[in-house]
Design a protein that fits this description.
Blueprint: E1 2-12, E2 19-32, E3 37-52, E4 58-69
Antiparallel strand pairs: 1-2, 2-3, 3-4
Length: 71
């Protein structure tokens, strides 16, 4: 099974003059070894920029691996 995601958003903060922009993207795969056990691998990217105001922009690259058991 393959999965994918993408997103864009803006955060407005009340009572302070700040606006952030967020972009996300990701993809994942699940490989079933048999009908009860699967291996998962996923990647996600997050980029937050400060459009107005004070703040610390950041970028995150996250890789996850896992095991799925289903009965």
């Amino acid at each position: 099974r393959l999965t994918g995601e993408a997103g864009y958003g803006r955060d407005e903060y009340k009572d302070i003059n700040r606006r952030d922009r967020r972009m996300t993207a990701g993809a994942g795969v699940t490989y079933l070894l048999n009908r009860n056990i699967g291996l998962n691998l996923a990647y996600k990217y997050l980029d937050r920029e400060i459009e107005r105001g004070v703040g610390i922009p950041y970028k995150v690259n996250k890789v996850q691996a896992g095991l799925t058991l289903q009965f």
